Amino acid sequence: MTEDQKRILADFEFRLRKLIELCDKQQKQIDELTKALDSKECELRQAINTIGELKTRCDNLLTARVVSVNEEELKSAKSRLSKLVREVDKCIALLNE
User: Fold this and answer.
1) Looking at residue 38, what is its pLDDT?
2) pLDDT at residue 69, as a whole number
3) 60 vs 7: CA distance, rounded Å
4) How many Å from the N-terminal Cα to the C-terminal Cα in the chain?
5) Against a cut of 0.85, is the pTM above it?
């Protein structure tokens, strides 16, 4: 093997080692990014679950509020109706005198 061929072979080996080193670095970076992505996906799933739970709680609270408002309105309507009935009874009593 000539000196020129030895030099080319040494250069090739050097470049091959550098390429392998670069591949190793890239693989480590890919592994780190994959772990980070998995972590973020887990956080996203938890956030979506929390949002779903909060939406359900909000819907339940709104339903409860509507029911309580309706109960209050019902009590108010009954009170007004009772008042009107008393007034009518008073008027009938006055007419009977």
Assistant:
1) 96
2) 65
3) 79
4) 139
5) no
Cα-only R_g, the chain: 41
Torsion from C-alpha of 32, 35, 37, 39, nearest 10 degrees:
-140
Nearest to 15 by CA among 4, 2, 3, 7: 7
Q: How far is CA 76 from the centre of its chain?
A: 39
Phi then psi for 36, rounded to 5 degrees?
-65, -40
pLDDT < 50 positions in the chain: none
Structure tokens at 25: 């670095």
Torsion angle (degrees, nearest 10) of CA 26, 27, 31, 36: 10
